[in-house]
Recover the amino acids of this structure.
């Protein structure tokens, strides 16, 4: 992995899982002020910043909005975040897993997930298994093994309307309920996404309405899917890049909020400088803190943007090289087959 990428400092998330002897320091330069990490075990914490001190890397962590202190994260599980993706539960595979019990996050997940579209926004590796962070309506629902979940793969492929066997077998809900009652005059059909394991397809009819149907209702679906590029498993580097970009988006949103606060403060002062209630408005030093926070946030955002742009360029160059390699391998394979047939 690229060393610059591996050592890049940005806001990260972890499930804290450290030995009891690995205490939290209130101050890096004062080892006498320590905090027992017991109360933070199996809690999701944020590493606000990282610092190399005496040749060792320390993370400054906080729990929710509570600042905690500095700790060497050695065994904790990093949460890799990314833009939302859609999944469905594979009902016949699911069973309750221990990790949510350890996170003190237990409920009847099967009933909560069954038949629903699930949003996945993060992943972790635990005991050599991949787990996804599941959300329903922006509410966190714990981590669950990827093998229990079927991802919606985007295609956006048009196909001949004659391949749709029965135009009445279209549904408004992904559980194949809400079947359409009126006959639709179909001109175009676009395959929007698929759940491969669940054998479900989302179609756009006439570039307008969206409907669900089963694989069995689409003739020659294997041939249709062959038009699309293959998907590949993400590398550790890909995960890290996505997590950095996710953090950049969070920083950008914070910057927007700070800007709005500063603008509102200035407008309030201008409108109320001659009124008595101006005395109840925050002091100038509070406004200065907002401005300082804005400046710092903008500097961090600019740095992260520059770094993420360089990472994206590097990733694009790598993909281009891989395409070239694949083309050369394909030519060699064809030559080998030709020689073999002689």
């Amino acid at each position: 992995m690229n060393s610059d990428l591996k050592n890049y400092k940005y806001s990260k998330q972890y499930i804290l899982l450290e030995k009891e002897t690995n205490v939290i320091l209130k101050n890096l330069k004062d080892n006498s002020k320590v905090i027992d990490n017991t109360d933070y075990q199996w809690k999701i914490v944020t590493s606000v910043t990282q610092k190399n001190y005496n040749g060792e890397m320390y993370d400054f962590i906080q729990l929710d909005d509570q600042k905690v202190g500095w700790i060497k994260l050695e065994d904790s599980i990093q949460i890799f975040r990314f833009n939302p993706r859609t999944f469905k539960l594979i009902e016949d595979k699911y069973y309750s897993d221990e990790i949510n019990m350890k996170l003190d996050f237990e409920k009847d997940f099967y009933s909560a997930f069954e038949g629903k579209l699930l949003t996945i926004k993060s992943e972790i590796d635990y005991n050599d298994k991949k787990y996804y962070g599941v959300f329903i309506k922006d509410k966190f629902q714990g981590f669950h093994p990827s093998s229990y979940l079927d991802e919606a793969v985007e295609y956006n492929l048009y196909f001949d309307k004659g391949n749709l066997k029965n135009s009445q077998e279209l549904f408004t809900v992904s559980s194949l309920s809400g079947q359409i009652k009126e006959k639709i005059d179909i001109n175009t059909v676009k395959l929007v996404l698929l759940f491969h394991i669940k054998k479900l397809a989302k179609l756009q009819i006439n570039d307008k309405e969206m409907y669900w149907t089963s694989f069995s209702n689409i003739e020659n679906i294997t041939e249709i899917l062959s038009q699309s590029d293959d998907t590949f498993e993400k590398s550790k580097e890909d995960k890290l890049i996505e997590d950095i970009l996710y953090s950049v988006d969070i920083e950008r949103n914070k910057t927007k909020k700070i800007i709005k606060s500063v603008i509102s403060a200035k407008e309030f002062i201008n409108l109320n400088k001659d009124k008595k209630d101006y005395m109840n408005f925050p002091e100038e030093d509070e406004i200065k803190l907002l401005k300082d926070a804005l400046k710092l946030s903008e500097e961090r955002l600019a740095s992260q943007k520059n770094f993420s742009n360089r990472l994206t360029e590097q990733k694009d160059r790598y993909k281009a090289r891989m395409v070239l390699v694949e083309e050369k391998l394909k030519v060699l394979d064809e030559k080998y087959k030709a020689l073999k047939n002689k």
Summary: The first strand starts at residue 12 and ends at 15.
